[in-house]
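Q&A log
Question type: sequence-to-structure
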Amino acid sequence: MSSIAHAIPGAPEPAAPSALSRYLREISVGAAYALLLIILAVTHPDFFHARAGANQGEFFSVLVNMSPILIAAIGMTIVIVARHIDISIGSQLAVCSVLAALLAKSGFPMPAVGLMTVLAGAALGAINGGLVAGLGLPSIVVTLATMVIFRESLRWVRQGQFVSDLPHGFQWFGLSQMAGQMVLLMVAAAVFGIFAFGMRFLAAGRTVYAVGSDLEAARLAGVRPRRVVFWVFVLMGALVGVAAILSTVRSAGVDPSVGTGWELTVIAAVVVGGTAISGGRGTPAGTLIGVALLATIGPTMPFLGVPTQWEKAVRGAIILIAVASDGVLRRAD
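Response status: OK
Response body:
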């Protein structure tokens, strides 16, 4: 709209959207999450404190559990902002997790394990990116196919066998459980900070928004959309590799079926956090709120007296409200 106004002499400049209207979804979801935490703090303060016989409170456990999901969700945010989607991330996580465990069991040090796992994730993402950007295939079709290929290939190789007897230095990075959990939180915070800054202030981040908002306008502005899309998928895979490391170090063995359903969890959190499924709009900050809200719902239900079997229904209602509000906001724009 603004480009049209610039092209017409004397045309009035459209009013710039206020910060409130631009980030209305993020603000509303953040307010809802803050209200939930306030209610818990008033009615059930024990949610935030360690119970008798426990080393940590329920809220701290939520933060630790959501750390790998947050990292994958940041990657998904970038993919959806670019007007694509990746539903193969659960299978990518399984491949990367098993690979990390096998490398550690073979005697590789943890830094090497982490690096090779991230590179493997990037390679899986490059397969998706090459098919989508190089051949122009729909991302949902490509990633649906690779989701099955990655998962079934892993099942054929492992025959359902767990990777067990991992070295001591693998679980929690060889640290105590509390220290390992703090490492998880710090890695997730660092990844979030880097991408929140990059998407907001760096040219690379702005090109992703440009491609997702108006592909032709981005091309006319000198952006190479296919290159951007390819690297978006590579980045998605690399972040899944990071998430795989953070997820697998929490246990003494790795199940090849790990990651099943991750794609739905991650996409739901991203959409709830304000990222438009139609592309061009979304922030890592909104994704953080969406991940936190959905991760907190389940553990809080017993504290609020809600039967746990209602968890999926409540999550579904939250997602439906988020999608409906996105449609309302688009019509308003």
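Response note: DSSP finds 14 helices and no strands in the chain.
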